[in-house]
User: Fold these one by one.
Assistant:
Number 1:
Amino acid sequence: MTDKRSDDKKSDSSSANALWGGRFGGGASDIMQRINASIDFDRRFYRQDIAGSRAHCNMLMAQGILNEDDAHAILKGLDQVESEIAEGRFEYDASKEDIHMHVEARLTEIIGEPAGRLHTARSRNDQVALDFRLWLRDEIDALDPALAQLQGVLLDRAEEHADTVMPGFTHLQAAQPVTFGHHLMAYVEMLSRDRGRFRDCRARLNESPLGAAALAGTSFPIDRDMTAGALGFDRPAANSMDAVAARDFAMEYLAAAAILSVHLSRLAEELVNWASAQFNFISLGDGFTTGSSIMPQKRNPDAAELVRAKAGRVIGDLNALLVVMKGLPMTYSKDMQEDKEPVFEVADTLTLTVPAMTGMIGDLTANTAVMEAAAGQGFATATDLADWLVRELGLPFRRAHHVTGSLVKLAEDKGVDLDGLTLADMQAVEGGITEAVFAVLGVHNSVASRVSLGGTAPSQVRAAIAAARSRL
Ligand code: ARG
């Protein structure tokens, strides 16, 4: 029986790494290989790595640093390596550490000696920074349409429910009636800012580190504008040390992802609450719920609970990278190999949580009668009553607030809502009140009156939906 933990013997010296083997006679110990290897996760970069190598090779040829025969052999060999990996015919081996060395080693097997010329004027330090930026750029580009889809379904449901009245909460206490459409539109706004944060991140990361080499640049007459242009970057990164040392693009992505995940978790929490028997504001269908193996009556909102929970993972990943990077001196340190897994985990998480939320919002049924009945409970139109006293009787707001408080207390004592009080009850507290007050005590009148810009009146909600549709 072999116990891997106690198996820390030296590797066979014949496996001494061929890529820096010049002064390394013995092999790395097994445990060194295992802690050092990143191939299990950075293999995700293979397309970006090969695209970067192609751009570098073409530039070396254009600059006369590589002759055409060698360059063509390299380009042809890279094509073969790429299809071998894409088709699953590629052999990975932890002794070759990472994706950069795997590609080069295989290229050497295929084309021989010219493969050794590809790494001229380049280092794995600028190579990994390049691959990571290219990969993250693609990931951000793929996320944006998913977020737009979520906004789209929120807009559709908001339009459908522009008139549906529900309680609006502060402190999770019924505060004032709002419309369900207005509530959903709040998340459309949050998601617009989330998309903006990812756009900002993409714009800032879109500088090419290639040509920074190990950290100091190179003595070869390279053309960094050429490689930057070929790879779709806006410009080459200005400082070679920053180019290999910076990971703020990854931190910024994780920060934007953490904020997005907090938004998703807040909405998920609302779905969990609303789907409970106690609220019963919405019903979720079979697509996003599970049953209980013991309680036949149950329908559990598992997808919403998991979206709520996965924010924890994303926040943790942001924290992990911040702590890895904190205090690292210029420029590259191997610590930075730990930068990738948090980002991969977050990207994978978002490919689940965003579509899951889109699905749930599209799938939910609003129990509009329950929402509306709840909107009238808890004296939710007390502010409307106070506003009426100010508007119609000219009371100072503080006095109106006090009068309304007395009426709420009276209603509470009588076990009725505000509109269950008689006119005589009201006049006993404030003599000037007339029959007309009852019009503002209904929840529909209450929401319809909130016509201020950004308010919950159905007319405002429809205007907000139209504005968002043309903006998005
Ligand atoms: N696998 C390494 C990483 O992910 C690549 C860069 C290695 N550079 C170095 N100087 N050892 O960070």
Number 2:
Amino acid sequence: MSLLFRAGTAALRHRGRPPLRRSSTFNVSGYMPEAASFPGVRDFPGLRALSLQQPDRFWGALGRERLCWISPFHSVSNCDLGQGSIRWFEGGQLNVSVNCIDRHVHKSPDKVALIWERDEPGAQVKITYRQLLEVTCRLANTLKRQGVRKGDRVTIYMPASPIAVASMLACARIGAVHSVVFAGFSADALADRIQDAHSETIITSNQAVRGGRVIELKKTVDQAVKLCPSVKRVFVAMRTENKVLMSNIDIPLEEEMMKEETACDPVAMESEDMLFLLYTSGSTGKPKGVVHTQAGYLLYTSLTHRYVFDYHDGDVFGCVADIGWITGHSYVVYGPLCNGGTTVLFESTPVYPNPGRYWETVERLKINQFYGAPTAIRLLLKYGDEWVKAHDRSSLKTLGSVGEPINSKAWDWYYKVVGEGRCPVLDTWWQTETGGICIAPHPADREAEIVPAMAMRPFFGINPVLMDDQGRRLAGNNISGSLCIAQPWPGMARTIYNDHERFVNTYFKAYPNHFFTGDGAYRSKEGYYQITGRLDDVINISGHRLGTAEIEGAVNQHRVVAESAAIGCAHKIKGEGSYVFIVLKDGIDIAEHIINKELKDIVSQKIAKYAAPDFIQVVMRLPKTRSGKIMRRVLRKIVENKVDELGDLTTLDDYTAVQEIVAGHKLILEKEAKNSSS
Ligand code: WT7
């Protein structure tokens, strides 16, 4: 519980916009047409109460209204959180690609589905629903012809592009399970994920282009494949004109696609068949393949996309996340496409060719909802307001934030400068495991106040509770605890691939019959939620999750390292960075700048560049309990410069270890101060 803090929310309070209506007069069916199925429910609290008290009635009606079924479901939910058994819409059959493409082609074939915002500004490409269907079908037929079958796992290693989205949807069309791996992961990390998924098929591109630089994606795949003898085929799309070395398992994707038909029969999938795996970090060194299934996930992402962002037909939705993360899955691809929307695929960076890129893109593409990460906002804030003001942002209606806490300074700048005080800023809290947004300012009551830098209110069907250390539910407000969700919802993860036991142990054991999020939260006097950060050994670097055990695993592979301990530390731009303590093997003497560089390299090579440690401190020994457990609490306090809060050290086996680490940390701080002033 030590990581929890209580924010001074009273000082932050001001209104997102003036309250025009009170919730008690809220017109439910005006707001949510599907609510016509709930006669007698007149206001927002009534609708929310219904979603919690009669979840089957609520989700059943929405499932029938919003999704297009091949055969209808016979039960809405069948869940037992104690066992980690979660089943929604059983008996129903559907195809996700039909829901995301075909049904919109019937209505408006020439509507733009994707706007590919390529790295080079002004080079965007628009893809209509009809074109997306054709590309997806050709790709699906290619996969089938090359032997990919229903249930097979397909690893996709490419940045956001129409062909990447078509790859995901082509898998969905033929019932294959996609596993998108963020294209910034190293060959080793990619190989781990290919092996864990037993994936025989990879889809990649020859190269990637980002921030004006060319990245050799195919070469990374080649290295990974060497470690994965199970891989039978690698489809290679051409992002650039440059030829790359092709081996006998490599297949030129577009060339093969051109030989295929533009139609492909969709496979009827059961609601609970797997749709995708997505690897995310946990508190062990091994990432987990979070499994999402078909109907519940699709319904939940489309509903949250529609109501959290207030997305309307004709709007251009701009989520700048990469498709390699859950945000890209839910709010670049599945949510917006299920709603027949127009979604932006952003290939570039916030500072290419200059720090005005986001806002220049907003102006050129007339983006209505912009969804980004606090780390980028903090970075852009540093460059000043001129880069924002140089561009017309009048198209913007809502601004979203996700991935990590947004501090009030960044929130304010986003609200006042970017949104000109017109657009509500939505701090949305959710996780890879929750499938879609769970807590966000006004998922229903459009006129309700927004307190800056707070995730605020649970979405329909989400029942957040706070727990104390003894596993007791905390009643009342103005209180902090472990954030759990007390009822199942359709978007939640179903299992960890090939490791259901880990799923149950991680999420359902700490607080029986509750989903444990791993986060701490504060509930304000008014009953609003604010997320205070992870309670486990997971850190959040620029909105990307990373286990400290993964960093240690990589660092420990260096020839001179005897042992290590990694912890998170505050970082001005990234939100959190990593601070690694290492003990050298006996008799080793190595220059500091050499070990620093080599350890950064090894972490980049074993995991990804973003994971490279920010600080490395060589110590004689790590503080340990008498039973040999590393006391991370002590290391955290030292790094937070709270040496006077070290607390009870009587269980420590050697107090001089702590004194030595405190002194070494001071030196690192001094050096850091010198570097940043020079
Ligand atoms: C973790 C989940 C959800 C998509 C991106 C990250 C942190 C996420 C917020 C927020 C404070 C947040 C949590 C969570 N987080 N959104 N609005 N405020 N913290 O997905 O990689 O699964 O990470 O990100 O700690 O547990 P993810």
